[in-house]
Amino acid sequence: MVVTKKILLRELRDLFFFFVISLLQGFLMCRQCTPQRFFILTAFTFFMWLLLWKGNAFLSGILSRKISWTEFPLKSFLIGISVTIIYTVLMVFSLMKAFEYMTNMSFGKASMNIIYGAIIVTILISLFLHGREFLMFWRKASLEKEMFEKESIAARYEALKNQVSPHFLFNSLSALTNLVYEDPDKAVRFIKQLSEVYRYVLETREKEVVSIHDELKFLDSYLYLQGIRFGEKLKVTIGTIPESIQIPPLALQMLIENAIKHNVVSEEDPLTISVYSENGFLVVENNLQKKTSVDDDDGSPGLGLTNIRKRYEFLSNEKVQIAEDQKKFTVKLPALKS
């Protein structure tokens, strides 16, 4: 209701402006005219201002939505000026013919002067309107850039909190406690792999992307620790993946941990996870055997997936694809290039 009232007041203000400037033009251009001719000239000027200003504003809005000012500023400006001039000539010519038909008044030799004057006025109007559109889109782009930067910082912060959760550390130390007594040699290797995991976390905490080679090397250490915990209950296969691919750090680990957290992992029902490349995407797929309830350490189900989505929104125009059916759960990450 408030917005409608504001629009109505703005339109009434514009109409009042057109009326005043039309009276002023009529007075300056037709001081010796009869009242009837003065009225006709004022009405013609009023409708010309109305059609040129409002029509060009409407066309400017359409062109701004069709051709981005931020991506194609010169193209947008040139097409805008061309459309404006064509529209102006057609509207002024049509308006003159309409007034000649209704009033039996001929514009005569003044027709071309009116058209030339209208074009000059319209170009000035267009410069104002297109300048305003450019500034609005520039401001919008600046705000979006600032928003993405803030979201990126927030996503990194959330990533650091959730990359290797306290729950994972607790389970790893519990497994290590048993290994120390059962198999000291394996315990030593376990500690080495655990240190590799946390070293990678520290090394990549400031990075937006890492090479798939580094990510898979880290994943190997992470899966060794999970293998000690789950044994044959967890089976992870990694297919051939192009080395040119880049990925947000720990994205694969998050997806595998997400699969472990939300699915049954047992000898009767082993959890099978596949990681492979397909059609420009890095795919992480697991058989679906959902737990009846999930204990979320942070109280936020799916936070890992949300984290990955936000980071990809910042890094790529391609979106993370998530699919689920009765048998499997699939996440496709856009393959980022160097």
Structure description:
- It is a single chain.
- This protein has 338 residues and is of the alpha+beta class.
- 67% of the residues lie in helices and 11% in strands.
- It has nine helices and eight strands.
- It has a five-stranded mixed beta sheet with strand order 2-4-5-7-6, covered by helices on one side.
- Helix 1 crosses helix 2, helix 2 packs parallel to helix 4 and helix 3 runs antiparallel to helix 4.
- The longest helix has 53 residues.
- The radius of gyration is 34 Å and the shape is rod-shaped.
- About 2% of the residues have low confidence.
Provide a concise account of the structure shown.
The chain has 338 residues and is an alpha+beta fold. It contains nine helices and eight strands.
Per the principal axes of the C-alpha atoms, what is the gross shape?
rod-shaped
Contiguous low-pLDDT stretches (5 residues minimum) are 297-302
Radius of gyration: 34 Å
| Assembly status | single chain
| Helical content band | 55-70%
List strands and helices in order, with pairings.
Elements: H1 2-29, H2 35-66, H3 73-103, H4 110-162, H5 166-182, H6 184-204, E1 210-211, H7 212-230, E2 234-238, E3 245-247, H8 251-262, E4 271-278, E5 281-287, H9 303-315, E6 321-324, E7 328-334, E8 336-337
Parallel strand pairs: 2-4
Antiparallel strand pairs: 1-3, 3-8, 4-5, 5-7, 6-7
Helix pairs in contact: 1-2, 2-3, 2-4, 3-4, 4-9, 5-6, 6-7
